[in-house]
Amino acid sequence: MKAFVTGAAGFIGSHLADRLLALGHEVTGFDNFSTGLPAFLEEASKNERFRLVEADLLDFPELARAMAGAQYVFHLAANANVRFGPDHPRKDLEQNTIAASNVLEAMRVTGAKRIIFASTGSVYGEPHIFPTPEDAPFPVQTSLYAASKLAAEGLISAYCAAYEFQAWIFRFVSILGERYTHGHVFDFYKQLRAHPGRLEVLGDGHQRKSYLYVQDCINAILVAIDQASGPVSILNLGTDEYCEVNDSIRWIAESLELSPRISYSGGKRGWVGDSPFIFLDCRRMQLLGWKPEVTIRDGILRTLDFLRRNEWVLEKRC
Amino acid sequence: MKAFVTGAAGFIGSHLADRLLALGHEVTGFDNFSTGLPAFLEEASKNERFRLVEADLLDFPELARAMAGAQYVFHLAANANVRFGPDHPRKDLEQNTIAASNVLEAMRVTGAKRIIFASTGSVYGEPHIFPTPEDAPFPVQTSLYAASKLAAEGLISAYCAAYEFQAWIFRFVSILGERYTHGHVFDFYKQLRAHPGRLEVLGDGHQRKSYLYVQDCINAILVAIDQASGPVSILNLGTDEYCEVNDSIRWIAESLELSPRISYSGGKRGWVGDSPFIFLDCRRMQLLGWKPEVTIRDGILRTLDFLRRNEWVLEKRC
């Protein structure tokens, strides 16, 4: 296939690019390097079937030029920082919703008809059904991030109806693994490296979360493209388990052989829009023949291990 | 109250402005007159508690200036033309989603905290539950219009979480009545005036639709503001009945004393994104103490009567 990957220098995007190349596909990576890192594309860049375009999704002419000839568009680029949404309320709209509109319009112009989209389990807001299925009760949005992703989902579905596009929309839990350079593992490791004796935790530590290992995530995407043939496939992506933030802290501290004093900011939520319990029903995806291979604990430890081996990334993020 | 009404020269906006003025409130109307008509504000303009600002919601500085001092923001302005969405896919995004973001940002800047938003039953896509409740299964979007409205709903809810706004989001069926200058009654009357012997109908005529009379709609909005005190109140707004397009044709033809030959374009849907069956569960709104007073048939006939008495509006719309 001729694949076009937005956010190609990002966490999931770079792993996806590597995998698509390994499978023999042609890949055009598109990234503005606002958070993506050139080092993540080091391997890909050695491959003659890989091409990198450094540009912004809000630059429509450049986007449409870069996309020409693509058959499958993997739209992974996003402002993925849920927590700081209220500090800059336009950012999610611009980088997630308007950028998605540009991707869709570029597809319409270039004739690409298949889109794979990284949405989020956060679109369920604070659900009342666990594990939460894709057809859960129509939720109320609780974060600007999720609202902007839901808006993109809606646009994509509407394009499928209007222009006969085909879409695979994945509602992810948090994805973990090598090259993951934000989120709680990153935050905790960075804190413990600066002061091994204490750890500050947002919320009460009892937030229950699901995490999925990045290679399991990419396996799922590839299975779904192959097996789900409807015009709009909406698929939860997570594991059959969840953990408490406190579990994760224990695993990380054990692995680092530390016993930090933990102070909690308190409250059920770590920040506005943080969902105290994320646990998705992934049977739809599993019925297509996929299952995750890495546990939450191992995903966390692999992420930690990556950070220990690549401390330079700690300097790249605040 | 000090009210700010976007789309004040439009169908629902102008009726709302009239009502708020009649109740003794101060009203600032905001309209770019892209589809609004000055004649609809003739009465309001005579009232010293009314002020009109002619500007575009995409002009943020002008919007924020106009909104200063407002307590309640009634955001009714929209591109309301579902049918032609695929002809200009950016229009819904700009006029419905980005415009809503501007309204919310202007509220943040000016300190207004309460927003009333005209959403649509179309956000349910093609539901499987009738009448459709607000917490229906998470739907898939089928039109750019509904996708853009859903995006605005999400933004509004996220602002309530992030900045302690209070919102009343109404998911309307089609609203009918005096000053309604598009939709099927308008289309049929215009056709029959040009050629009384024949009528062209989109779809198979069996589409089942709900309609609500505009004064019933405004009654509901005012009851909800008074009675629903949660941070985000999402409320369906429709009648306990529905009709077929063919019923409406019969009522219109009888009223005009015509017997046109009817030709159907065929198919269950009149256009891409047309929902073959719209029937909303409005118990949430009714539990607040509201009920509609005008039947669908009477709403259609009042709309028709308005058009017969105001044929000049036929020239204003294609």
Kindly describe this structure:
Two copies of one chain form a homodimer. Chain A has 318 residues and is α/β, with parallel strands linked by helices. The first copy, chain A, folds into two domains: 2-175 and 211-237, Rossmann fold (3-Layer(aba) Sandwich), CATH 3.40.50; 178-209 and 241-278 and 294-316, UDP-galactose 4-epimerase, domain 1. Chain A contains eleven helices and 13 strands. The first copy, chain A, has helices spanning 11-22, 42-45, 60-67, 89-110, 144-163, 184-194, 214-227, 245-256, 283-287, 296-309, 312-316, and strands at 2-6, 26-31, 50-54, 72-75, 114-120, 166-172, 174-176, 198-201, 208-209, 211-213, 232-237, 243-244, 261-264. In chain A, strands 3-2-1-4-5-6-11 form a seven-stranded parallel beta sheet, sandwiched between helices. The first copy, chain A, has a two-stranded parallel ribbon with strand order 7-10. In chain A, strands 8-13 form a two-stranded parallel sheet. In chain A, strand 1, helix 1 (11-22) and strand 2 (26-31) form a beta-alpha-beta unit. The longest helix of chain A has 22 residues, at 89-110. Chain A is globular, with a radius of gyration of 19 Å.
Name of the CATH class of the largest domain in chain A: Alpha Beta
**Oligomer, anyone?**
homodimer
Q: Main sheet of chain A: which strands, in order across?
A: 3-2-1-4-5-6-11
CATH architecture of the largest domain in chain A: 3-Layer(aba) Sandwich
Distance between the termini of chain A: 37 Å
Described by the principal axes of the CA atoms, the overall outline of chain A is: globular
